[in-house]
């Protein structure tokens, strides 16, 4: 989930410089649409021969494919084809005007559809990465079609529904949407975020991108995804039973699903567990070098599993 605002966690120095453009990091990926259940899904696709495999990355609530931008070029240079996806109703992917069409299962079916295309185009292996709410969605995709995926990474995600401060924010979402739509939600979150020194340090072009992106969210998508995120059951045992190798990775001060919650999930999964220093809830933009190292090492280790 990518929501502006303060954190209950202790201040964490981020590894990136304050003038880093984060989601606007330079890359060579091309814009491309993939077929989804409600229409085209916008993506960034690095292409290439995928000598190291293909990586499918799925963004979280109010996020977008650009949340993986700092990883695209280095992963491509490492021999991976990378596809980063806007889910339906997010940024450049249109979505239906019905909140019931944004359940975890329906969103997961979109991910499965894209994964099948990638399998046809590039073959094996296919590594799946889900950030935050995108982790709940991609988990459902793995449960639905485990043989499609070589590995699965939960990045800043959790075992079940969101709780805590960020969940409290979502409880206020409906009344704000009723009163003023997406624009009022954006205005309110902007006011909250400007009380956080970290948000104030984000470069102006990136803040402008955040605003432009948020205002393109589907109102129905915001409602439906929020409801889904607040109602997701614990499916850890089901995921472990698939046998798909899993990595649980998160920032050292994650303020969505807290670090101890994710550590417990990893233990129950029998999964690899990595804490990414100098990062909070979005390691791919807060500490891209370490996130890249963690992912590549996990994928390499999966190739030598007995």
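Q: What amino acid sequence fits the structure above?
A:
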């Amino acid at each position: 989930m990518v929501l502006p605002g303060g954190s209950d966690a202790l201040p964490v120095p981020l590894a990136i410089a304050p003038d880093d453009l984060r989601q606007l990091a330079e890359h060579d990926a091309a814009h491309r649409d993939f077929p989804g259940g409600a229409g085209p899904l916008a993506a960034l696709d690095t292409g290439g021969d995928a000598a190291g495999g293909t990586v499918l990355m799925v963004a979280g609530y109010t996020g977008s494919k650009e949340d993986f931008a700092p990883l695209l070029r280095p992963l491509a240079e490492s021999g991976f084809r990378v596809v980063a996806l806007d889910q339906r109703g997010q940024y450049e992917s249109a979505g239906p005007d019905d909140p019931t069409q944004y359940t975890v299962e329906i969103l997961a079916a979109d991910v499965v559809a894209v994964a099948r295309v990638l399998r046809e185009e590039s073959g094996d292996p296919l590594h799946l990465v889900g950030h935050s709410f995108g982790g709940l969605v991609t988990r459902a995709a793995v449960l639905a079609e485990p043989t499609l995926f070589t590995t699965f990474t939960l990045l800043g995600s959790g075992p079940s529904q969101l709780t805590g401060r960020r969940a409290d924010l979502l409880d206020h979402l409906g009344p704000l949407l009723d009163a003023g739509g997406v624009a009022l939600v954006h205005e309110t979150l902007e006011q909250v975020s400007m009380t956080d020194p970290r948000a104030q340090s984000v470069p102006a072009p990136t803040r402008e991108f955040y605003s432009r992106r948020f205002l393109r969210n589907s109102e129905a998508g915001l409602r439906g995804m929020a409801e889904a995120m607040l109602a997701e059951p614990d499916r850890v045992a089901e995921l472990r039973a698939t046998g798909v190798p899993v990595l649980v990775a998160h920032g050292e001060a994650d303020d969505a699903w807290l670090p101890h919650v994710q550590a417990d999930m990893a233990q129950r999964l029998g999964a690899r567990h990595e804490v990414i220093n100098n990062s909070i809830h979005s390691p791919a933009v807060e500490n891209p070098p370490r996130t890249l190292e963690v992912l590549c090492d996990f994928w390499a280790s999966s190739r030598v599993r007995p």
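Q: And what stands out in the fold?
A: The mean pLDDT is 92.
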